[in-house]
């Protein structure tokens, strides 16, 4: 029973870790490698929804950090980012 509880806790904590956005106030840690890029689009999405979408795409790619390279909030909201691991 203890093994099941511990395993569940590990799975839950790993699933809740989201990719971190790289900004001027939170720079990329040393030693991280670029592994690709992601994009997200959703008509009429807010800035925070676009950033969350980019974070989710980064997680799916296996990245831990992403740096936004473009962001447009308009009738066809979209964004792109470089992914690092």
TrEMBL record:
Name of this protein: DUF1471 domain-containing protein
One of the Pfam families matching this protein, by short name: YdgH_BhsA-like
Species: Serratia montpellierensis
Signal sequence range: 1-18
Entry keyword set: Signal
Upper taxonomic lineage: Bacteria, Pseudomonadati, Pseudomonadota, Gammaproteobacteria, Enterobacterales
Residues of the YdgH/BhsA/McbA-like domain: 34-85
């Amino acid at each position: 029973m203890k093994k099941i509880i511990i395993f569940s806790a590990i799975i839950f904590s790993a699933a809740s870790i989201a990719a971190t956005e790289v900004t001027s106030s939170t720079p990329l840690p040393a030693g991280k490698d670029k592994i690709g890029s992601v994009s997200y689009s959703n008509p009429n999405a807010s800035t925070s929804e676009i950033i969350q979408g980019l974070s989710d795409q980064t997680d799916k790619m296996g990245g831990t950090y992403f740096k936004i390279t473009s962001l447009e909030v308009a009738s066809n909201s979209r964004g792109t980012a470089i992914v690092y691991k």
